[in-house]
Amino acid sequence: MFESTGWSLEDQTGASEHSEGATIVRSVDGDSEVGLVRQLEFNSDLQRMSVVCSSPQSNSLFVVTKGAPEVVFSLCLPGSVTKEARQQTDSLTKAGYRVLALAHKPNLQLKWAKALRSPRELLESDLEFLGLLVMENRLKKETPGTIEQLNSADIRTIMVTGDHVLTAGTVARKCAISRNASQLLLTTVREDGVVCWTSLDDPSVQVSLRDFSLPKFSQCDLAVTGAAFKIMLDAAVESSQINQPPPSLADGVSFSNSNDFTWQDWDCLLDKASIFARMSPDQKQYLIESLADRRGCTVGMCGDGANDCGALKSAHVGVSLSEAEASIAAPFTSHTPNISCVLDVIKEGRAALVTSFQCFKYMALYSVIQFTTVVQLYTINSNLGDWQYLWIDMFIILPLAIFMAYTGPYHKVCNRQPQGSLMSVPVLGSILGQSIIASGFQIAAYEYTARQAWYVPLKPDSDPDNNIQCMETTSAFHFSCFQYLFIVVSFSISKPFRKPMITNVVFTVSFLVLLGLTCMLVLTDIPWIVNLFQFSKLPIDFRITLVGLAVVNFAVSWLYERATVALELCWSEGQSLSDITTKQGILLVSLSFLACSSGFVWLLR
Q1: pTM for the structure as a whole
Q2: Helix (H) or strand (E) run with residue 143 in it
Q3: Contact at 8 Å (CB) between 197 and 254?
Q4: Which tens digits make up the pLDDT trace of 335-349?
């Protein structure tokens, strides 16, 4: 805006409150110039800034002030601000424009040296109103879509800003932060310090916070100003100190700075308000802390200025939209200057959490499968060979455990959160159930091997190395290799938090290559491989049956894991089994499939 005037800054020396040097502002033609003597920096609590200037033409000092209209109006002489100016301010802010008021003190009756030392209150008093600076507050094109996705995911969105409450209310309606456009109630503070609630569209409607429990106000949105925020917070603190019971629901339509506003009302305010305007940095920080501590919310904060630093640090997840001061306080800094990055943080965070749980479960099942194999072989004084251990640990487990974490987040934000605790029924139930399935099928494979007509049991030798090459070890190794491969697919759940497994190209290729190599180890008799892995010769039809049994094992594991996900959904949403949808009900049929597989294992025995 300064550049549009055509004036220029010259000899800028960073004048401060104690500097006697002046920056010169000169007009285009050079005929007019103004010296900046002292800067009174913007203060978020005062909501204004000023400069003391000198005019070489008149050899006098004057003060120019800009700031929030309601603040600047209060600093002006009584007759300086007209009724039309106030009405125009309300009309412009209600239309969504960002409005600043300009005022000046044309003849500062102070000497140069005294002007540098005078208190701010003296310099910014008895001003004359000049006019309004109006800026269009355009929404970025990404904002409405981002808010819509957050709303559809049942993620509550709150606007916390330093702008005028009417501007904030209009912008909130445009981007759907205020979901109910017909019921937006604003706080106003009267001259006697009483907080009133009025409708944005009909100022004659005044209600109490406790009236929000009534049906006609149950869906309304609230817009709270920083001044009202302070009054109601002070009143809640005073009420808790006096320790008197709250008034009845029929009492009053407003709240004063007394004990009639309680912490219960404060909690109601936190639950209902979607707009907080004219908020100071400390108020922003306290709001974040109240939502987290009193309401138990997981709070994310998105900001771009120094005024947001405290709130960004207090939030569970802070995202800075700039690389200035806010980026120091926030754990995340976005290179895209719009709030669409919030969706990326949510999707990536949820996918990372689900992935870490899936990796944990895979490593747990890897241990269970190998433990079952080794215990069975120990009972006959045998064990896996060195190359068999190496193949399992280095060529199967290591690449799959690494590459399964490369699956990206799902493109949509789900309306539920992933399981957040390892010590929970869904996670432990999945691990326990999969352990039973894996161990049961491995025991079944062992028993199936021992019942074959050509089976020759191991005759233990005093040298343990001579006990490795036997039918039991070969059968157990072949079957367990397929279990290691198939269980990772069972755990690779995709939506609603991760992309389908096939989109993870590295993982998919690694899995297919390892599956092909494992089939080659099991179904072929290449001499050097047989000698290297110390295999015993098994009939080819038996090995094919063993592969088929591994496929059945995979089917049971896959269906059980899907059933666990469905039950986890019921668990997280507090549903009963009768509330499960048809799709989820189909998944639960896998439990009966599990029972059938148990009968299959019993028949093998």
Answers
A1: 0.79
A2: helix 142-152
A3: yes
A4: 888 899 999 999 999
